[in-house]
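Person: Show me a sequence?

Helper:
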Amino acid sequence: MVRIAVCVKQVPARSEGMMDPATGTIRREGLAAVINSCDLPAIETALRVKQAVAAEVDVFTMGPVKAAAVIREALGMGADRGYLLSDPRFSGADVFATGYALVQGMRTVGAYDLLLFGKQTTDGGTSQVGGTIAQMLGIPHVGRVTKLVEADGRGVTIVQDLERELLTLRVSFPCVVSVEPGIFTPRLPSLRSKLAADKRQVTILSLEDLGDKDPTHYGVKGSPTKVEKIYPAALTPRRDLLDMDAEAAAELILSQVRRLTRPGGST
């Protein structure tokens, strides 16, 4: 039996979340949350492997209790079990502390043959968690994977996009694979499977459930990355669309050009 773990994340549904200048993290309060879009193809890849060989698919995420919603979305697609690492001491984690917490969480369940990740998250975009976990576990990591060619009980054959060429690789288990968004179109769960997933149990893991219970290894305290300063992106103010004839439009444009080119003119 091949054991597959897929790591997913709940992210803000929109990108206008304000940053906390003290911690450099997103203020998520009041923002609607959804499953990270790049994680859906990773779930689909796991389910395709499950169709090819005898396999079980577990899904892991870290976040507040409400993040169980993304686990249930994966269960509705066909995953077998879900695990949520949820503890206030996990909050504010950078890539390293996030990877460490996920490794500790997976070790409470057992060893996995194949670990799957999406390309990146929409709220961080570092594309480093998969590689970080592979390094911690001491197993191979292959990123930029665009195609699953074959899967069996010993490993997977995949295609890696190296920009100027495509490389076909045979990777033995255990391994970590990060897939590109276009590898598969994620399936849409039926209403029945969604309703069934809502009733499924999601196992919640706190710090006390992990092998390493030292709180300084998690969250902000366990994060070697420190934010020095935040430079929020300037938002473009709303502009009105003017509807006028060609002559009036030309006169308006000319007046604006004259205003901007005279001494002291500005935008």
Remarks:
- The chain has a mean pLDDT of 91.
- The first strand starts at residue 2 and ends at 7.
